[in-house]
């Protein structure tokens, strides 16, 4: 099976990031039709019918989320979550860098459907190049009258600001994102109230991921039924999947959901380097419980991954081959969440810290048999006990690694593997990335 | 209950061995010092261009506090890091307390509350890059720049001449380029260990580092463009 490119079609067309080239390829035609000929309710209805699920990680119906916003004349907000920081995820970076206008068009159409007038793109601080590209694209869209006051005579105003974060994974959590956008430390809020009711500045707020919003021009241009002809019944459409780690061709692959995971990893990403076998993989970013080589035939869809005990998440596969020590991979994973925990909730702040300490002890050969059980119980005590799922995001994969590869952890108790943390010399991808 | 509570005594409380004593603990109470109020513009000597920039940033949002992070970015661009004076200047323009902006600055990894080298190399050491040799790449950058490896792995280390900061960093969202680094806020990859010395030399000479490995100039990773799906080829909308 091959890729099915919709969002990534013609992605390397020179100058696609400029409005001229984007329009030449059919860009902004859909926005013009939506603003000139469609009622907001119609647009919303089409989005709901399409079954588009959020591409940021949770997989919630986009149209349903938009319909939760109260009707009526009040300040409503739309935030595009471009804080992509999940280890293994790099799809939004490429979508914004290569095709920023697709996102801007999607935001403007979503704003019409949701009745939002003030929109923000919250982009992670590290994406400096992409933020500059977006700034330029937004300025072009204002100039052409696709953003601003009374767009195309529709009496609908849309203001769009690119807001650059400053380096904190937690800001990808939607309520922490709102706090950061309000100029505070990015701490998550208690839910409910959900942002659709009480979000940015206390007003109704729709928050969607970059890829979700980039789908919107395609859905509105061709209709919900057309969109549902891609993918599976419960996971319609295409998905940009980021495949990385021990594969020969790491990169973004846009596929129809439901493709067997094996085809994605082997046929598209080239599988592990010659002479190596897959040992484990994270199917949906570093927060997803790891699966093993036995799970390679699970279809890549929201529902099948959930049935397999993991999740599709942001659609990022990290492959570990037989050279990777699982306890060391668990430590790398835990270190990330320990560093990124905002510290607001005790189970996450302390749980991530203790997990790191226990894993460090273990890989240094100073663990005790008790540590494995304590570690498993720490993970259980984090899950579901915090304001947001950052702690769970460590507990789930680490818990799964201890469960599925317990033997490897136990082996460290008797003979720690010196230097196992370094699995090889610096190794560039086997296939060179072409320059444009 | 009050009888059971120890009275605030002037005798120093025992401090942990080897740790500096907290002034507040020595006195048994927080030293009597008024909280810093919102500074006035005439008290801070804020350069006009910085003031204008922050005012422009505030005008983008319904509430001025939303400009906190952008304003701190502006301070950092001007002074190299979020200096106490720079923070007071921004606080005066924004009419918030310096402590408020400090609390924001200290939360975010990219906002620096201590001096850092004028060129910044952030080496991603997260899972995918680690599997492809990120630890060795960080070793190589430390060796080339003459920075401390242990410190570089824990928040960053400056070279002695103050030219470079080398820091291990959490996932930078470029696993397709693994192992990779962000150099002066732009991405480069995939890097080999010997690229580190080249990049450091180029940075020291004021040249663009590793131009042939800049993400800005690379095509997308992954496979070649496949023949379009019929449904997509016949569709309306963008990219077509």
In short:
Chain A has 436 residues and is α/β, with parallel strands linked by helices.
Write the layout of secondary structure elements.
The complex is a heterodimer of chains A (436) and B (240).
Chain A: H1 19-24, H2 29-37, H3 40-50, H4 62-67, E1 77-82, H5 91-98, H6 100-114, E2 118-123, H7 128-143, E3 159-164, H8 174-181, E4 205-209, H9 210-222, H10 224-228, E5 238-245, E6 251-256, E7 259-260, H11 261-268, E8 278-282, E9 291-292, E10 299-300, H12 302-307, E11 316-321, H13 326-340, H14 346-363, H15 369-382, H16 390-404, H17 406-414
Parallel strand pairs in A: 1-2, 1-4, 2-3, 5-11
Antiparallel strand pairs in A: 5-6, 7-10, 8-9, 8-11
Chain B: H1 23-27, H2 41-44, H3 48-58, H4 68-79, H5 84-94, H6 98-105, E1 119-124, H7 127-131, H8 134-145, H9 149-152, E2 157-158, E3 164-169, E4 181-183, E5 186-188, H10 193-204, H11 230-233
Parallel strand pairs in B: 1-3
Antiparallel strand pairs in B: 1-4, 2-3, 4-5
Helix pairs in contact in B: 3-4, 3-5, 4-5, 5-6, 8-10
Instruction: Supply Rg of chain A.
Output: 22 Å
Strand content of chain A: 5-15%
Oligomer: heterodimer
Structural class of chain B comes to alpha+beta
Name the shape of chain B in a single word.
Answer: globular
Taking strands numbered 1, 2, ... along the chain, how are they ordered across the largest sheet of chain A?
A: 6-5-11-8-9
Share of helix of chain B, binned: 25-40%
Residue share in helix of chain A = 40-55%
Please describe the biggest sheet of chain B, giving its number of strands, its sense, and whether it closes into a barrel.
5 strands, mixed
Radius of gyration of chain B: 24 Å
Number of strands of chain A: 11
Strand content of chain B: 5-15%
Q: Which regions of chain B have little confidence, pLDDT < 50, spanning 5+ residues? A: 5-15
In whole angstroms, the N-to-C terminal distance of chain B is 76 Å
Q: Main β-sheet of chain A, in a few words?
A: 5 strands, mixed
Distance between the termini of chain A: 26 Å
Q: Output mean pLDDT of chain A.
A: 93
Largest interface by Cβ-Cβ < 8 Å: A-B, 104 and 74 residues
- Give the topology string of chain B: H per helix, E per strand: HHHHHHEHHHEEEEHH
What count of helical segments of chain A does DSSP give? 17
């Amino acid at each position: 099976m091959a890729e099915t490119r919709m969002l990534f079609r013609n992605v390397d067309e020179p100058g696609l990031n400029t409005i001229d080239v984007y329009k030449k390829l059919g860009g902004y035609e859909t926005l013009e039709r939506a603003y000139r000929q469609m009622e907001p309710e119609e647009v919303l209805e089409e989005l709901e019918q399409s079954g588009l699920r959020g591409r940021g990680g949770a997989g919630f119906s986009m149209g349903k989320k938009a319909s939760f916003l109260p009707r009526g004349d009040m300040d409503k907000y739309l935030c595009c979550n471009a804080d992509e920081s999940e280890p293994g995820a790099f799809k939004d970076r490429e979508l914004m860098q290569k095709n920023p206008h697709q996102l801007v068009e999607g935001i403007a159409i979503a704003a019409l459907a949701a009745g939002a007038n003030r929109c923000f793109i919250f982009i992670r601080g590290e994406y400096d190049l992409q933020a500059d590209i977006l700034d330029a694209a937004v300025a072009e869209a204002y100039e052409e009258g696709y953003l601003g006051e009374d767009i195309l005579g529709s009496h609908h105003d849309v203001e769009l600001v690119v807001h650059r974060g400053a380096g904190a994974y937690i800001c990808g959590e939607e309520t922490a994102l709102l706090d950061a956008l309000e100029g505070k430390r990015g701490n998550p809020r208690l839910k409910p109230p959900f942002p659709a009711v009480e979000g940015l500045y206390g007003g109704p707020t729709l928050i969607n991921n970059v890829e979700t919003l980039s789908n919107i021009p395609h859905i509105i241009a061709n209709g919900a039924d057309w969109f549902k002809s891609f993918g599976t019944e419960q996971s319609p459409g295409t998905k940009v999947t980021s495949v990385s780690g021990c594969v020969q061709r790491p990169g973004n692959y846009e596929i129809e959901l439901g493709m067997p995971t094996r085809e994605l990893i082997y046929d598209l990403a080239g599988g592990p380097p010659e002479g190596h076998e897959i040992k484990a993989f994270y199917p949906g970013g570093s927060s997803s419980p790891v699966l093993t080589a036995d799970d390679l035939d699970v279809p890549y869809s929201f529902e099948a991954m959930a049935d397999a005990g993991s999740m599709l998440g942001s659609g990022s596969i990290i492959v570990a081959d037989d050279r990777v020590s699982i306890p060391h991979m668990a430590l790398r994973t835990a270190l990330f969440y320990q560093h990124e925990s905002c510290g607001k909730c005790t189970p996450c702040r302390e749980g991530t810290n203790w997990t790191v300490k226990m894993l460090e002890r273990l890989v240094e050969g100073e663990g005790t048999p008790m540590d494995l059980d304590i570690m498993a119980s720490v993970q259980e005590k984090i899950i579901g006990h915090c304001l947001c799922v950052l702690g769970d995001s460590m507990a789930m994969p680490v818990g799964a690694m201890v469960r599925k590869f317990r033997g490897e952890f136990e082996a460290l108790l008797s003979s720690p593997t010196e230097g196992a943390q370094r699995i090889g010399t610096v190794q560039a991808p086997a296939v060179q990335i072409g320059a444009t | 209950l009050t009888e059971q509570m120890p009275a605030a005594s002037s005798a120093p409380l025992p401090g942990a061995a080897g740790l500096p004593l907290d002034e507040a603990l020595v006195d048994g109470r927080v030293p009597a010092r008024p909280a810093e109020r919102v500074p006035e513009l005439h008290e801070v000597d804020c350069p006009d261009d910085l003031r204008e920039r922050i005012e422009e940033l505030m005008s983008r949002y319904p509430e001025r506090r939303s400009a906190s992070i952008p304003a701190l970015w502006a301070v950092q661009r001007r002074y190299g890091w979020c200096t106490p004076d720079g923070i007071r200047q921004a606080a005066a323009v924004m009419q918030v307390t310096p402590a408020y902006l400090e609390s924001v600055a200290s939360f975010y990894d990219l906002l620096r509350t201590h001096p850092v080298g004028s060129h910044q190399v952030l080496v991603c050491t997260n899972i995918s890059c680690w599997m492809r040799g990120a630890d060795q790449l960080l070793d190589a950058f430390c060796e080339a720049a003459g920075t401390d490896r242990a410190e570089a792995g824990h928040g960053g280390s400056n070279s002695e001449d103050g030219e470079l900061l080398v820091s291990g960093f959490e996932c930078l969202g470029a696993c397709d380029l693994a192992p990779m680094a962000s150099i002066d806020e732009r991405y480069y990859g995939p890097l080999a260990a010997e690229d580190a010395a080249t990049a450091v030399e180029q940075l020291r000479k004021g040249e663009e580092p590793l131009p042939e490995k800049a993400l800005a100039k690379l095509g997308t990773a992954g496979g070649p463009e496949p023949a379009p799906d019929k449904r997509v080829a016949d569709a309306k909308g963008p990219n077509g």
